[in-house]
Design a protein that fits this description.
91 residues; single chain
Length: 91
């Protein structure tokens, strides 16, 4: 199964990326995921379920430890086990 994770960490700082945002970015960029896109207002990454879920665990733990007061995330199934996309958009 493939998953897509979208997340943001708060509080925001438009002048300089806060420590929790830098930590979250590092976790995602080093997790061996595909299609990683990081930005100031949201971040996305895709990959096999085990890697995404491991990255989400590390993301939550490390960004909260680094000062995040809120982490918003969404995880979507983008491909089912058989690779035919039947699970996309609902399960």
């Amino acid at each position: 199964m493939r998953l897509r994770v979208e997340f943001t960490t708060e509080p925001f700082d438009l002048d300089e990326a806060p420590a929790h945002a830098l930590v979250a970015r590092e976790v995602i960029e080093t997790a061996g995921l595909d299609a990683v896109d990081v930005g100031p207002f949201g971040n996305t990454a895709e990959g096999v379920a085990d890697r995404v879920l491991t990255a989400v665990d590390a993301l939550l733990r490390k960004s909260l430890e680094a000062g995040a007061t809120r982490v918003s995330l969404q995880v979507n199934v983008i491909d089912d086990v058989h690779g035919d996309g039947a699970a996309e958009g609902g399960r």
